[in-house]
């Protein structure tokens, strides 16, 4: 609302009037119209404020060249009356400006931009408490409708939706209000923003109280239309009694010295002008009226007594008063002067937006008792704060809510009337451990059980409030779970409980809770014995390790041959020496060597080599033992790429989204086969794709684990995984239940109750075929590279040092190839 000070200039049907008289006069009178409902107390108070502004301006500004002359007209609280008053002022007095009317409803010729800054304060309150949905309740008038687009935008900016807009006719009877209030009672949303004029708002809250809607759990927020005159209305209508716990915003007016002085003078003058009415303090409306009148008088004076020709229409039949209204050429100049006027007024910084006074700071108040208690402030710069000039943390938790409760309402409730949540559940032919829909003959009713159902019940029990619900089986879900989930989007169900997977596509039209199972899609394939088992003795070592080991045996043989070239125990003939040396080196494997080493250098090299051989043989023995004592089973396929390249047949579960994933990966529909039960999975895998079965099963991990627990032998699940988000509960888009249910899901899944539910529905079976399908990895070269490096360095250094020392004692450069191969010529030749 606000003081709707509408300045009507030549734009009023193209007829802005500016009455200028002779510039030779000492003070040129300038006619200004005032349209108020002088039959009301608020109208009388506004007239006192406006007339005081003119008197005060000229009392403090001497030698003025202009003099504003006020012409008061009564709108009679009627749109037609306001329009007739405006025409009369323009036609008969050629007024330069019109101040008023008090409400934008009466100013039907002027576009009301509304006091839009207050929506920021309201949105800040909604964001502070985290309410996800809000219902505006507003008057069906220009005043009521004008602010709604800005309010909706502000709410959307803080992630709060508007599921419904409640419109109350300006002249609504009590029965009409009750009908609309009953409709609001049937909704889940319990946060309402009321934007009405005071008279209608007072009746609305009284009806809401009579229907029990001012009780605990409800949230009512009002705009300044009601709050600005709350105390004044309470004297007349006892409105605060019906508004206990309401939160409201209203423009902030600081109690400055000027305001205190004005209030005292206002009460005295109002008592003189209206002796039969009890004097009251001016409201923010009267302060705005004072400031606006001051601004208009200032603009008139700043523009000066300029002469302007007044032009009458030259054509037309002049059959109505509107036809004879003329126009002034200098009107736009005055309009610009008023709109550009800035000063510190009684109500704060003065500025006009769209011809209406705006406030930048607001009070957030709580209606308790007979008045509104200020709890916080709001400014566009600082948001909600305890102080105007400093960002001090908000304390909105001190609010007393409807029902005289200190507990913050969660913003929604299960609708009155005992309506239960309609929960859709899938009807499955297999994997009934997750969801099973049965019939109980003794009670003649449907019974829904299963792992997912038990988790949902545990989650509902974990909520801090009671939620009633009823399960409804949905049989078409066997074809596709998308059909079931779409029923939530169509509002046929409030939610879906079952083994429903969270996917990006589904989140476009429903909301999911946090997942309660592990995520991912994988494959199960048959296993078979390794056909290369006859060569299993080669498997403990990789080919590279075999080759390097053999190379080091040869290298160590030549090292010993060089150092022990004079050792007669290795024979005299080349073939004999080579054979004995390499036999000696290889016999280290079983530590059965008979020849003795005479050189310390060869002994050092062989000690290191024996250590390497000891580790290598021990590791080989352990790996070979493992492979020989454990059944060797291998999966028939390694991953999807292999299956795709071989044209394999893939199985999936009825109703699953897995088929779409496989198609996106390149599998043709003709290669896909669907099944319902785990037994059908096993039968199809044993048959194989070539015989009418499948080569692999593609499904979500929880189903595959259940399948493997029931069919322990002959199958294995691959480590390859397609990422998904697991199972979640489905709710309507924007449902206020989702955050609370998600928190409850986390509490349940992290507690002991989750373990009990899993043990109830799934047995913990260990399958040998699954554990042994992937054998231990072969020993590789990298694992022994350090040992080989040490052996190579030590052996090479030993041979080089021996050759160096031998060359110093001999006339030759060292042992020749002939000496190495033929050995010593003298059997008794000493070895260095």
TrEMBL record:
InterPro entries according to UniProt: ANF_lig-bd_rcpt, GABAb_receptor_plant_PBP1, Glu/Gly-bd, Ionotropic_Glu_rcpt, Iontro_rcpt_C, Iontropic_Glu_rcpt_pln, Peripla_BP_I
Transmembrane regions: 545-563, 604-622, 781-805
Q: According to Swiss-Prot or TrEMBL, what is its membrane topology?
A: Multi-pass membrane protein
Does the keyword field hold Cytoplasm? Answer: no
Question: Transmembrane: present as a keyword of the record?
Answer: yes
The Gene Ontology CC terms held by the record are: membrane
In terms of SMART domains, this protein maps to: PBPe
| GO MF annotation terms | ligand-gated monoatomic ion channel activity
| S-S bridge residues | 712-767
Which cellular compartments is it found in?
Answer: Membrane
Q: Which residues form the Ionotropic glutamate receptor C-terminal domain?
A: 420-764
Q: Which UniProt keywords apply?
A: Disulfide bond, Glycoprotein, Ion channel, Ion transport, Ligand-gated ion channel, Membrane, Receptor, Signal, Transmembrane, Transmembrane helix, Transport
Under the subunit heading, UniProt states: May form heteromers.
Q: Which PANTHER family match?
A: OS06G0188250 PROTEIN (PTHR34836), OS09G0428600 PROTEIN (PTHR34836:SF1)
Q: What does this protein do?
A: Glutamate-gated receptor that probably acts as a non-selective cation channel. May be involved in light-signal transduction and calcium homeostasis via the regulation of calcium influx into cells.
Q: Which family does it belong to?
A: Belongs to the glutamate-gated ion channel (TC 1.A.10.1) family.
Query: Under which name does UniProt file this protein?
Result: Glutamate receptor
């Amino acid at each position: 609302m606000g003081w709707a000070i509408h300045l009507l200039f030549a734009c009023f049907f193209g007829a802005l009037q500016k009455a200028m008289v002779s510039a030779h006069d000492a003070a040129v009178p300038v006619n200004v119209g005032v349209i108020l409902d002088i039959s009301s107390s608020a109208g009388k108070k506004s007239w006192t404020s406006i007339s005081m502004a003119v008197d005060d301006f000229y009392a403090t500004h001497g030698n003025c060249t202009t003099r504003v002359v006020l012409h008061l007209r009564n709108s009679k609280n009627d749109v037609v009356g306001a329009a007739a008053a405006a025409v009369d002022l323009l036609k008969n007095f050629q007024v330069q400006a019109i101040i008023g009317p008090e409400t934008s409803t009466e100013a039907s010729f002027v576009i009301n931009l509304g006091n839009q800054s207050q929506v920021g304060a309201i949105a800040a309150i909604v964001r502070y408490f985290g309410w996800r949905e809000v219902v505006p309740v507003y008057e069906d008038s220009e005043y009521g409708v004008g602010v709604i687009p800005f309010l909706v935008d502000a709410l959307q900016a803080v992630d709060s939706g508007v599921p419904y807009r409640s419109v109350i006719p300006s002249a609504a009877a009590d029965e009409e209000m009750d009908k609309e209030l009953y409709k609001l009672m049937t909704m889940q949303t319990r946060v309402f923003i009321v934007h009405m004029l005071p008279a209608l708002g007072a009746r609305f809250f009284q009806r809401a109280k009579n229907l029990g809607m001012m009780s605990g759990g409800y949230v009512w927020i009002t705009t300044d239309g009601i709050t600005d005159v709350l105390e004044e209305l309470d004297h007349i209508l006892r409105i605060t009694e019906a508004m206990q716990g309401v939160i409201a915003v209203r423009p902030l007016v600081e109690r400055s010295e000027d305001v205190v002085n004005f209030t005292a003078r206002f009460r005295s003058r109002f008592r003189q002008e209206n002796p039969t009415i009890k004097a009251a303090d001016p409201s923010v409306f009267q302060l705005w009226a004072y400031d606006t009148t001051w601004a208009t008088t200032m603009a008139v004076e700043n523009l000066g007594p300029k002469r302007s020709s007044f032009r009458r229409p030259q054509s037309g039949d002049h059959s109505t008063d509107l036809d004879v209204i003329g126009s002034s050429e200098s009107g736009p100049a005055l309009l610009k002067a008023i709109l550009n006027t800035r000063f510190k007024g009684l109500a704060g910084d003065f500025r006009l937006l769209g011809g209406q006074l705006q406030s930048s700071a607001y009070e957030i108040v709580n209606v308790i008792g007979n008045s509104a208690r200020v709890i916080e402030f709001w400014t566009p710069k600082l948001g909600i704060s305890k102080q105007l000039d400093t960002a001090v943390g908000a304390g909105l938790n001190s609010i007393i809510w409807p029902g005289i409760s200190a507990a913050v309402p969660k913003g929604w409730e299960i609708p009155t009337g005992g309506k239960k949540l309609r929960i859709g559940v899938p009807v499955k032919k297999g994997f009934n451990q997750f969801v099973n829909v049965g019939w109980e003959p003794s009670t003649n009713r449907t019974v829904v059980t299963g792992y997912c159902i038990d988790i949902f019940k545990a989650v509902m029990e974990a909520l801090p409030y009671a939620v009633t619900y009823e399960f409804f089986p949905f049989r078409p879900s066997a074809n596709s779970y998308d059909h079931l989930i779409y029923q939530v989007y169509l509002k046929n169900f409030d939610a879906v409980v079952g083994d429903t997977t969270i996917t990006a596509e589904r989140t476009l039209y429903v909301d999911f809770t946090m997942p309660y199972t592990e995520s991912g899609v994988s494959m199960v394939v048959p296993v078979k014995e390794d056909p290369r088992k006859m060569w299993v003795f080669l498997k403990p070592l990789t080919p590279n390790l075999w080759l390097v080991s053999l190379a080091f045996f040869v290298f160590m043989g030549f090292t010993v041959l060089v150092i022990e070239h004079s050792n007669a125990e290795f024979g005299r003939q080349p073939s004999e020496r080579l054979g004995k040396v390499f036999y000696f080196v290889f016999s280290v494997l079983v530590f059965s060597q008979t020849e003795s080493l005479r050189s310390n250098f060869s002994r050092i090299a062989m000690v290191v080599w024996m250590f390497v051989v000891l580790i290598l043989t021990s590791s080989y023995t352990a790996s070979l033992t493992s492979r020989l004592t454990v059944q060797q089973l291998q999966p028939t396929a390694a991953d999807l790429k292999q299956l795709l390249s071989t044209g394999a047949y893939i199985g999936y579960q009825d109703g699953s989204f897995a088929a779409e994933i496989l198609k996106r990966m390149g599998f043709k529909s003709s290669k896909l086969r669907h099944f319902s039960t785990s037994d059908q999975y096993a039968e199809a895998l044993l048959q194989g794709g070539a015989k009418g079965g499948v080569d692999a099963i593609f499904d979500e991990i929880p189903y595959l684990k259940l399948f493997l627990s029931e069919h322990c032998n002959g199958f294995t699940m691959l480590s390859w995984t397609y990422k998904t988000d697991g199972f979640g509960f489905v709710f309507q888009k924007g449902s206020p239940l989702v955050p609370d249910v998600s928190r409850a899901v986390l509490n349940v899944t992290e507690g002991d109750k989750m373990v009990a539910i899993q043990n109830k529905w799934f047995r913990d079976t260990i399958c040998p075929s699954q554990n042994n399908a992937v054998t231990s990895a072969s020993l590789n070269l990298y694992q022994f590279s350090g040992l080989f490096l040490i052996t190579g360095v030590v052996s090479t250094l030993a041979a080089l040092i021996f050759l160096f020392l031998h060359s110093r004692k001999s006339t030759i450069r060292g042992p020749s190839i002939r000496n190495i191969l033929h050995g010593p010529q003298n059997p008794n030749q000493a070895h260095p």
